[in-house]
Write a structure and sequence with these properties.
alpha/beta; Rossmann fold; Helicase, Ruva Protein, domain 3; 2 domains; 5-stranded parallel β-sheet; 44% helix; globular
Length: 339
Amino acid sequence: MSVVTPSPSGNLDEAAIAERAEKAVARVTQAKADIAQIIFGQETVVEQTLVTILAGGHGLLVGVPGLAKTKLVETLGTVLGLDARRIQFTPDLMPSDILGAEVMEQGQDGSRSFRFIQGPIFSQLLMADEINRASPRTQSALLQAMQEYHVTVAGQAHNLPRPFHVLATQNPLEQEGTYPLPEAQLDRFLMQIDVHYPDLDAERKILLETTGANQAEPQVAMEAAELAEYQQLVRQMPVGESVVNAILQLVRVARPQENQDRDDITKLIAWGPGPRASQALMLTVRARALVDGRLAPSVDDVLALAEPVLQHRMALTFAARADGHTVRNVISRVKARIA
């Protein structure tokens, strides 16, 4: 199998990468085990969230209330050794409540000057709780930070701590009083992670473990600097030619403009994923392999991550939605083309 080198700047040989990856696998496995002591019945959600962070991106957690989305983010902050903060998004939230603001101070000599007071965005793991409840103006305050890792206040740029990740939650049920996230902001999220109800056994465990006098507390499994090292390692992992081809085929089939003869799938799609989706898949399949204890990704990783990476980066035509088609169903049909 031919192997694609991760980047022109990567000088480490495969043996060195494998040695570092084995250490990373052990540490990530321990982190997963620590999270499993707190979060029950959401193995796929935990895996996808870890993949998002190891790939260096931001995640959008979508699910009904009470599924431990907030608890998961709090637990991740502790386990991964990150400085975590939480913002409850509400309709009256202002951009300055997120970014911070300049205040005027007067010295003892009577001189006046402005001092910048940092907002909660200056953290390593920011939880944007119920992000769609804030106005578009406030939502856009996150755009520059999520893409450029700094914020601009009064014309002055302020760098954010690294690593920096946004994990936002969204309730899909209550749409009254909410503001749908614009496509430009949705594209900033590496993955949309759907949080579903736990199965019977998991819910039984939740009942027994979370309603007693003693409850498990998350433990620190690694430090932020160590996480940053693993994020760089993900970018150095080798990727097989078959995986690269699967990513390209998957994304391009989901673009109606890529197909001159619109077939039964592409005629359902109004607009499809851009190159950022390809980049997201390239990073997340490596991170998933690392989380699963493997040293290189496979086509199965591409298929497993197709939905969380693509579903918020494409839309169906009005006619397709009227006929009962959904984005998830269309992605399943796209995946069948390369399976």
